[in-house]
Amino acid sequence: MAAPSTEVGFDLLGQAAPLMKRYYDDRRVYQMAFKNRPLFAWIPKKTGVVGGSTAGSGYGGYQVPITIDDIAGESAVFASAVEARDGDSHRVWQLDRIKRYATATIDWETVRAMKNDMGAFMTAITPRIDSAINQLSNTIAMGLYHPDGSGHRGIIKTAWTPGAVIELTPETAHLARTWSLRRTLTASTTASGGTLITAGGGKTKVTGIDLTAGTITVEDYLQITGLAATDFLFPLGDYTASGETQKFMDGLGVWGPDPTSISGGDDQGGVDRSVWKERLLMLHADVALQSTAGDGSFVRGCRQAAAKLQANEGSPDAFFVHPDRWAQIESDLASQSRYEMMMGSDGRTGFDSIVINAGGGKINVVADPWCPPNTGYMLQRNTWELFSIDRVPDFVSDDGNRLHRLENADEVEFRLGGYFNTCCRAPGHNMVVNFLTS
pTM for this structure? Predict the structure, then answer.
């Protein structure tokens, strides 16, 4: 590549823009975003969803029509069919469109020092962009499995005092991996709809993470004080306080909560899900872990769960589980294991899967490291959708420039992000499988 001009007024960022567009094309960004994130790769994408607002119910958010029953106008008598033909057989969900951003900078001195070597400039900037894509994709991958859609990154197990590690509950210990060093941590006594704990400065930065122990270490100054058991942890900016618009995406926990927790008037997206839980919520089934490895009981339990889902008119084609559970299924099947490549929505990214047959249907069992260890999700692909204005993740740049010179700092900034959410048009055709550990 010819060296760019060094004349005064040379547009270095303009020179970099077309190179970055070629380097970070759709294929590359999707491959980076989907790697090691099977559910994120698998879920169908619908871009170009515009209109409405970020606030859903009553404000023109994304509307999802859900048919929960067949037509009522059917009878051996024509007059009876006519009389019942206007039966209420559908609901319309109002979904919020949420925002996610990832930004980083490179100082202008470094940029100027490499103005005659665009290759060196790209070498300097791409690790930061790659890291931002990775971090944003991790949040989406985690968000798809989030237990309640609040975006919390763990629940405190025991009361914490400055100087000690923050220990997460066993059910949320896997969320420790969603933190990163130097990220600002905040806390609240509620998952959403309350206020942040502000005592002792109200926020602090993460200095250590132990994934095996499920613990987090924070800095020694400006620590939050008074953290109690059952308090929720959040990255700065993610907590949805009282009166605020939803800040985190609707993951599987929103579409498939424990049915016993849903009562009349407990609406989600403007829909009272208590009127027919088997259609307006994902089904639930319990499967016991095998007491003897390879005895076939685990796979048998999974097939029985699939049969329950199929009896509710579901046609599951994928079963996402933690790698530990995938290994148990493989052990249970032993020599009968049959493998197949499951493709992502981009048609290029693939993941190894074990094929199990249940009720005459084929289901691809996929190991997803973001899936909680003791929960699996049996899903029907054509009922799901990740809708967005543009591709997610993508560069946030309406003017076409992927790098921006900051006015208040001697730095160049890039911005990645998206405006999106997930929806399910037939929750009852999908299932949450709870693996019993005792």
Answer: 0.89
Our CA angle for 191, 195, 198, nearest 5°, is 115
Q: What is the tens place of the pLDDT at every residue in 71-114?
A: 777 778 788 778 777 666 678 888 888 999 998 888 877 777 76
The whole-angstrom distance between residue 322's C-alpha and the CA centroid of its chain comes to 15
pLDDT in tens, 9-24: 446 666 777 777 788 8
State the span(s) of the chain assigned CATH 3.30.2320.10.
Answer: 262-387+424-436
CATH superfamily of this structure's domain 262-387+424-436: hypothetical protein PF0899 domain (3.30.2320.10)
Three-class HEC string of 74-143? CCCCHHHHHHCCCCCCEEEEEECCEEEEEEEEEEHHHHHHCCCCHHHHHHHHHHHHHHHHHHHHHHHHHH
User: Looking at 143-279, which runs of residues are DSSP E strands?
Assistant: 166-167, 184-188, 204-210, 215-218, 232-235, 267-268, 271-272
